[in-house]
Specification:
- The chain has 130 residues and is mainly alpha-helical.
- Helix content is 82%, strand content 0%.
- Helix 2 packs across helix 5 and helix 3 crosses helix 4.
- The termini are far apart.
- The mean pLDDT is 84.
């Protein structure tokens, strides 16, 4: 099947959107269960737990890309440096705070608090003129 047709087919869009919602929604209880299952209490262990989770996810993404395109890195050194900078700042710092915060609240509360971030970021746009 053509890759472009796959991502424009309505059924596939609904299926992929549903899968993403399930995966993103399951992160909160999975983190809380992981904390109790592995007896994680200190900040260092929480960050190692997050690191393992993201390392596994990164390896899976690279394997899927390798299977789909037979190539992993299709960008220049400059682009690689930009991606590394973005990944190390935005993603790392965001999830450091996320994992530490999740240890101090329930999964449901964490999900609600994180979900309100979208609405809070929309509010300034309502008052901006173009």
């Amino acid at each position: 099947m053509d890759k472009d047709k796959f991502y424009t087919n309505r059924k596939n869009i609904v299926l992929l959107a549903t899968l993403c919602c399930i995966l993103w929604g399951s992160a909160y209880p999975a983190i809380k269960i992981g904390y109790s299952l592995f007896n994680i209490n200190d900040v260092g262990s929480k960050l190692v737990f997050a690191g393992y989770r993201f390392a596994l996810a990164g390896i899976l993404v690279l394997l899927l890309e390798l299977i789909a395109t037979k190539s992993i890195f299709n960008f220049s050194r400059k682009q690689f440096a930009q991606i590394a900078l973005l990944g190390s700042t935005q993603t790392a710092f965001q999830y450091i705070f996320f994992y530490i915060g999740m240890s101090n609240t329930t999964g449901v509360r964490g999900s609600i608090i994180n979900g309100t971030g979208t609405f809070v970021s929309i509010i300034p746009g309502l008052f901006t003129t173009y």
